[in-house]
Specification:
about 325 residues, about 75% helix, MetI-like_sf
Length: about 325
């Protein structure tokens, strides 16, 4: 009896310990993996940014914030920042709007729904290098398809590589081609999770399709839209493959008219200077820019949500 009581007490203790410890053990692999492949590289990059770092010789003397100051004093860095923001605005804003509209169409009663849903995801499967090479030919200055069509209707050809804004538009078109369908499927999943009773109640109240879309669909998928906007912001500010492969040189144009921050980072680390310390400083500056924009997006969306909630209560 005593042994049985001890066993029962031991089982009870192990049971309580299991209930307390098991949840942490289940989520521990994610945090361990994140610490190895996410947190450690960020901290190590900060360490590199504080030193002179050469490709061959490795770690040099400690220089503090000197690398950051030198980067901020470079006109080419600010040019890369302007190019990045321009391409980001031209790609992310139309991309989110188009993704919502495509998701709304796919959520309707269409024939062969699976076919259309797979079709919008096909551009995402294509590699960025292939997309960049194809669009580089489509938007070629001399023999591109777009300029051929423009001249056929009596319009002047556009310098898609020589003109700054035109090159940004062409690169944004590549980004939208690849990512619009992917974001559309994410928004579609959120739309399908909306209870159909809400639409039935709206129909009974006499709401049109547009009023159902703006007063039922959009408010219900707001958390998903916030997620899509944040991921689009992060991806848009880190763009590299498309502008890198837009021409054969891969340097961002003759006057660096489409060179992004990530391309400037690559040039700082692997260019003629091989200055890994300065490249690490550029990486951290880009990280801070992304964090600031993510916080701005979060605050704006939270303010909109709280305003609409107060308006609904009134």
């Amino acid at each position: 009896m005593i042994r049985e009581a001890r066993r029962q007490a031991r089982r009870t203790r192990f049971g309580k310990l299991d209930v307390k410890v098991s949840p942490y053990l289940y989520i521990a692999p994610f945090f361990i993996l994140f610490a190895i492949v996410g947190l450690y590289p960020v901290l190590y990059t900060a360490f590199v940014a504080m030193h002179k770092w050469h490709l061959i010789n490795g770690q040099g003397p400690f220089v503090g914030l000197q690398n950051f100051i030198e980067v901020l004093q470079q006109p080419r860095f600010w040019q890369a920042v302007r190019n990045t923001f321009s391409i980001f605005v031209l790609s992310s804003v139309p991309q989110v709007v188009a993704a919502v509209l495509i998701a709304a169409v796919l959520d309707a009663n269409l024939r062969a729904k699976t076919f259309w849903r797979m079709g919008v995801l096909l551009p995402f499967v294509v590699t960025p290098v292939a997309v960049s090479l194809i669009f580089g030919k489509i938007f070629a200055d001399d023999s591109g398809i777009v300029n051929t069509l423009l001249t056929s209707i009596g319009m002047q050809p556009v310098g898609w590589h020589s003109d700054t804004l035109a090159s940004h538009f062409a690169i944004a078109a590549m980004v939208n081609f690849r990512w619009t369908g992917y974001n559309a499927l994410i928004v579609l999943a959120a739309m399908q999770a909306i209870p159909r009773e809400l639409y039935e109640a709206a129909i009974i109240d006499g709401a049109s399709r547009w009023r159902q879309f703006f007063h039922v669909t959009i408010p219900m998928i707001r958390p998903t839209l916030i997620f899509v906007v944040l991921t689009s912001t992060i991806g848009g500010l880190q763009i590299f493959d498309e502008p890198r492969m837009y021409d054969n040189a891969g340097s961002g144009g003759a006057d660096r008219q489409w060179m992004t921050v990530t391309m400037y980072l690559y040039e700082s680390g692997w260019g003629p200077q091989h200055n890994f310390g300065r490249a690490a400083a550029v990486a951290w500056l880009l990280f801070l820019i992304i964090v600031v924009f993510a916080l701005i997006n979060f605050l704006i969306t939270r303010q909109i949500s709280s305003t609409e909630t107060k308006g609904g209560k009134k």
